[in-house]
Amino acid sequence: MELRGLHNMADTENKNGTNGRRRFLVAATSVAGGIACVAWATPFVMSMMPSERAKAAGAPVEVDISKLEPGMLLAVEWRGKVVWVLKRTPDMLASLAKLEAQLADPKSEREMQPKYAQNTTRSIKPEILITEGVCTHLGCSPIFRRDIAPADLGADWLGGFFCPCHGSKFDLAGRVYKNLPAPTNLIIPPHTYLSESLLLIGADSKEAV
Ligand code: FES
Q1: CB 138 less than 6 A from any atom of ligand 1
Q2: Cα–Cα distance between 128 and 155 in angstroms, integer?
């Protein structure tokens, strides 16, 4: 029997640099092969607790993204790590091409993603980014900063992920900025789509489960 749990998604925003409005979304998720998951929500944070059996098996995680709105971030736990699912807006996608000169590996030539995500958006579907929420320097958890040009990140900040531990920055495709401690882009985990709105994180295809 498959159990369903609730995941919470949170997003602070806004594009003008003021962290005012907050939106929350609850999305149904499950772990393939049996789950027991519990959710709690704080901004940006979702907690999912797979069963011990699922944890031991490193089971893939099914994620319903049907309620994910453009600009919002969903965090999922997979193999003890946070995996982010970001639905990018057209403006977010447009920002990616403007940053290449500032990035260490703008074309994602290093092996930090499956082949199907080795492209300009680092994703299967352009608007949906799936990446580990783990800094590639020493493993801290970066913060989703979608605000444009905030005082602390500079006038050329177009949104992305900021690691508070030692200041590494990643754009909205998880590509790392040059000359900062993190050596590589964020890691894209194996994933596939089971349907238009059902995502499987942890396997490259349904058959691999
Ligand atoms: S752990 Fe992220 S910059 Fe050091």
Answers
A1: yes
A2: 26
The series of mean pLDDT values per 10 residues for the chain, 209 residues long, is 33 36 36 36 44 66 92 92 95 95 94 92 97 97 94 93 97 97 97 94 77
Residue 181 Cβ < 6 Å to ligand 1: yes
CA of 165 to the centre of ligand 1 (A): 5
User: Domain containing 101 — which CATH number?
Assistant: 2.102.10.10
- The total of structural domains in the chain comes to 1
Give the span between the Cα atoms of 7 and 64, in whole angstroms: 10
163 lines ligand 1 (CB under 6 A): yes
Enter the pTM of the model.
0.77
Residue 182 CA: nearest ligand 1 atom is 3
With beta carbons less than 8 A apart as the criterion, state whether 15 and 49 touch: no
164 within ligand 1 shell (Cβ under 6 A): no
Give the residue numbers spanning the domain of 105.
Answer: 5-208
The amino acid at 54: A
